[in-house]
Amino acid sequence: MTIKLTCAFALAFLFATAFGKYYIPWLQKQKAGQEIKENGPTWHNSKAGTPTMGGVMFILATAFVCLTVGFPGMLHGEFVHIFVLLFACVFGGIGFLDDWQKIRRHQNTGLSARAKFLLQLAAALVFVLLMRHIGYLRPNLYVPFSGRTIHMPEWLYFVFAAFVIVGTVNAVNITDGVDGLATGTSIPVCLFFVFLSFAWGREYLQLGIFASGLVGGLLGFLVYNFNPAKVFMGDTGSLFLGGAVAALAFAYDIPLILITLGIIYIIETLSDIIQVGYFKLSHGKRVFRMAPFHHHLEMGGWTGKKWKERELFVLFTGISLVFAIISFIGVYSRYM
């Protein structure tokens, strides 16, 4: 098991780094550059034209290890990692459509918010129903740290699952705001699932292969995405990543762990919601200098210190790592 998970990580890392050497120049030739928000920090304007849709690098790397390292398990009828991969790819596809619209229009807006929400909601419901049909999901909620399980009506569970999945996907998307931030923040999250596979045993190997491959792919992508970024993951990558994190939480049957495991995603999303809500209620006043929270820190926050992108990467990744460890403690004993 250790060998397979290590191989999944190594192969995905090598795939992503090697593929990036050819893929990024190709994106540049296609003029697939990122448009920068006009209301964003002014120093981000220098990033205009940086290739986007770089998430394809870790998507293909993850798919590669699922189909190679995970192939022996597939011969024995174990396809749960493929279901997770396909589900994440559906969200990646929605992100690709959004990125493509942005590139074609030379604007920072692609699909309408309504269109993205409806597509994401449909994908979430199909995934939950499919996983329930084949027996990978049960309408029960395990409560981390307590060991208790809450039994829910099936319809309510489906509503809850769709809400959590769509929320997680968009939260990861919001976190993707400065170089390497969503990448670095998500690596400890995916490592959490890898170590769960170690702890819980052979039954979770296929899911561990997916998670380990995603970690390797993200690290390979980070080689090019770390500040100063040579490529952005785009909505193609961030929506795939959000879909993968949400799908893993449900596939391991511990969706409530996202409250602690995804603490950075939650902080980023809440800062956006608070900012918009307070702005409307107060007729123009703001809680943060700019939302989401990473931009607030970039612009001086409440202390006046302007955080640099590399400092934000270290801060957010470090917090994510600490909460991944806490989350592991909260669910470790479930199947021990």
Structure in a nutshell:
This protein has 336 residues and is mainly alpha-helical. It contains 13 helices and two strands, in the order αααααββαααααααα.
Describe the structure.
This protein has 336 residues and is mainly alpha-helical. The protein has 13 helices and two strands, in the order αααααββαααααααα. Strands 1-2 form a two-stranded antiparallel sheet. The two termini are 17 Å apart.
Distance between the termini: 17 Å
Number of helices: 13
Which band does the percent of strand residues land in? under 5%
Number of individual domains: 1
Descriptive labels:
67% helix; globular; mainly alpha; 13 helices; single chain
Topology:
Blueprint: H1 2-29, H2 56-68, H3 71-75, H4 80-105, H5 113-133, E1 140-143, E2 148-151, H6 154-175, H7 181-200, H8 205-225, H9 234-251, H10 258-261, H11 263-281, H12 293-298, H13 309-331
Antiparallel strand pairs: 1-2
Helix pairs in contact: 1-2, 1-8, 2-4, 2-8, 4-5, 4-8, 4-9, 5-6, 6-9, 6-11, 7-8, 7-9, 7-13
